[in-house]
């Protein structure tokens, strides 16, 4: 897909036009993505205090004992959203679902250990270790360019 950006000083608001010979799945997906308004704010609760979490400060989100937590540079927060809802809010270029119970910020991955048969062990910059489920290995490899 070819992308072109045109700067026009007279333009009052951004406008996107898709020019194509036929409607394909890719074109439909891009149009749907662009037309949806998404909330990007994520609130976390720590010590009975609600804070807005910055996506660049988040290492990972994980589900444990029926609750969802966000591990950040400022500590761990409980999040009142489900993982699938978080997937819709976070930047899909940086965050990836690595299992049914975890979403990781790929920008915060320090190293990968591929020696485990059928899975990947991720070491995060904060010292946490996460494991990619077998089902997600191909997707993660593609996303990080392996």
What percentage of the residues does DSSP assign to strands (E)?
25-35%
Shape: globular
Question: Ranges with pLDDT <50 over ≥5 residues?
Answer: none
What is the averaged pLDDT score? 88
Largest sheet, spatial ordering of strands: 5-4-3-7-6
> Tally the helices: what do you get?
3
CATH topology, by name, is OB fold (Dihydrolipoamide Acetyltransferase, E2P)
Q: Got a strand count?
A: 10
Summarize the biggest pleated sheet. 5 strands, antiparallel
Give the terminus-to-terminus CA distance: 22 Å
The radius of gyration over CA amounts to 18 Å
**Would you list the SSEs in sequence order as H and E?**
HEEEEEHEEEEEH
Name the descriptors.
146 residues, alpha+beta, OB fold (Dihydrolipoamide Acetyltransferase, E2P), five-stranded antiparallel beta sheet, three-stranded antiparallel beta sheet, 3 helices, 10 strands, globular
Please tell me about this protein's structure.
It is a single chain. The chain has one domain: Beta Barrel (OB fold (Dihydrolipoamide Acetyltransferase, E2P)), CATH 2.40.50. It has 3 helices and 10 strands; from the N terminus they run αβββββαβββββα. Strand 4 and strand 5 form a beta hairpin. The model has no long low-confidence stretch (mean pLDDT 88).
Blueprint of the fold:
Blueprint: H1 25-35, E1 42-46, E2 49-53, E3 58-64, E4 67-72, E5 75-79, H2 83-89, E6 95-99, E7 102-105, E8 109-113, E9 120-124, E10 129-132, H3 137-144
Short description:
The chain has 146 residues and is an alpha+beta fold.
